[in-house]
Design goal:
Blueprint lengths: L5 H16 L20 H13 L9 H10 L4 H12 L8 H17 L3 H18 L4 H14 L2 H17 L7 H13 L3 H18 L6 H25 L4
Helix pairs in contact: 1-2, 1-11, 4-5, 5-6, 5-7, 6-7, 7-8, 8-9, 9-10, 9-11, 10-11
Length: 248
């Protein structure tokens, strides 16, 4: 990498870091409703971003021995791995309510994701999604898991489908703030795949929604959650700029 590009790349990394740190914060819609507490405050995210911005550049490992030394320091916890494997192998009890069945399937799918059983993630996840849809239950957690898993497979058609459903859910529930994360991530993911037209389309939707959000309930929702929404849009912008080679 050209050394002259490092400051620009660092700025993009900072934007993405803030977006990830704030990803636990669910945005309200035009009614300002809010169901979950932020995983981290905006001020804390800013402090972490400043630390990243000011940290010295660390060169990547250059030899096989360097890589091996890093891997040796990152050995998995056998007890934790065994616990996850048991969770991924767990049978779904009979006699559960629809919501309990969905929760059990999602829990098993999440454990399968952690141990690398990608096929099982889709089997359990799709079954949970089918059950949730048939009973009118909230499929958000399932869709997020399936969408995240598809980023590992490269099947961008499915990734777009799950993301679109998340965006549509935000509209039908009047919680438009929830649309920023899937829109911004879609822009980033599609740009990484070279689909700059698709990435720009979702980025444009997110930018327009961001402008609109400043008028929701007299600006109260934006005042409270605008930082998280802005970070999602910035992540999309960073992806489009970074993967297209336009760092300006």
């Amino acid at each position: 990498m050209n050394v002259a590009m490092l400051p620009r790349v660092r700025r993009i990394a900072v934007l993405l870091a803030v977006g990830v740190l704030l990803s636990g914060q669910s945005g309200g819609g035009c009614d300002g409703a809010q169901s979950t507490r932020p995983a981290i405050s905006l001020e804390q995210a800013r402090q972490v971003a400043v630390q990243i911005e000011n940290s010295p550049f660390v060169a990547p490992p250059r030899t096989v021995e360097d890589v091996a030394a890093i891997l040796d320091r990152q050995k998995p916890d056998p007890a934790k791995a065994l616990e996850l494997q048991k969770a991924a192998d767990a049978a779904i009890p009979s006699g559960l309510s629809a919501q309990e069945g969905v929760n059990a399937l999602v829990k098993r799918a999440e454990a399968a994701f952690e141990v690398g059983r990608i096929r099982q993630v889709f089997v359990d996840g799709e079954e949970a999604l089918r059950l949730a849809r048939s009973r009118g239950l909230d499929p958000t957690r399932i869709l997020v898991l399936l969408r995240t898993t598809e980023t590992l497979t490269g099947r961008f058609g499915n990734l777009v489908r799950y993301s679109e459903e998340l965006i549509q859910l935000s509209r039908t529930r009047g919680r438009l703030g929830d649309a920023f994360s899937p829109m911004g991530l879609l822009a980033y993911n599609l740009a990484s795949a070279g689909d700059f037209a698709g990435a720009s389309r979702y980025l444009g939707q997110a930018e327009n929604l961001l402008k609109e959000s400043k008028t929701w309930d007299g600006g109260r929702s934006y005042f409270q959650y605008g930082g998280a929404w802005e970070s999602s849009v910035q992540a999309g912008r960073a992806g489009v700029a970074g993967f297209s080679g336009n760092f300006e």
